[in-house]
């Protein structure tokens, strides 16, 4: 179900409350670095039975997921890592299982299908039982390509839905891509 909320109207408390009711844990929160401490504070505020020991804020790529953490809060860049050091150990729980619930703050950051962060995060989203994508930034002037990674991430879980290939998606839903791919301009992404 789609909810459109402007800044400051409760996306974060709503996501924390939904995660509390999902019961699949631990919960991974992916957010820009400047919001990590804010997420920790909000989690403790809206889920008062948790303590600071239950919320792990990952600050370095070398940090390991904590077995006691109910929430793991990490930035896009730390989770993604680099090509040489992809931080794969952060892409699963301390026990090696996929995260049951993943909250992605500023999810519009995943709009580029071939970016490192999108390539790292979408498989994790597809493996999770519950995914919450949050953004206050509309994709109003965007091509359908920009929503493809977000929808692809939402189509996983216990009853996965097969998404068409990106090229097929663009030919069907992105008018601009149709013009470009008919021999004028760059080739379609693979």
Automatic annotation (TrEMBL):
Domain Helicase ATP-binding stretches: 1-156
Gene3D superfamilies reported for this sequence: P-loop containing nucleotide triphosphate hydrolases
Keywords per UniProt: Hydrolase
Pfam families in alphabetical order: SNF2-rel_dom
Top-level taxonomic group: Eukaryota
Listed SUPFAM superfamilies: P-loop containing nucleoside triphosphate hydrolases
Cross-referenced InterPro entries: Helicase_ATP-bd, P-loop_NTPase, SNF2_N
GO cellular component: nuclear replication fork
Single GO term (MF): hydrolase activity
GO BP term, example: DNA repair
PROSITE patterns per the UniProt record, alphabetical: HELICASE_ATP_BIND_1
Stated name of the protein: Helicase ATP-binding domain-containing protein
High-level lineage: Eukaryota, Haptista, Haptophyta, Prymnesiophyceae, Prymnesiales
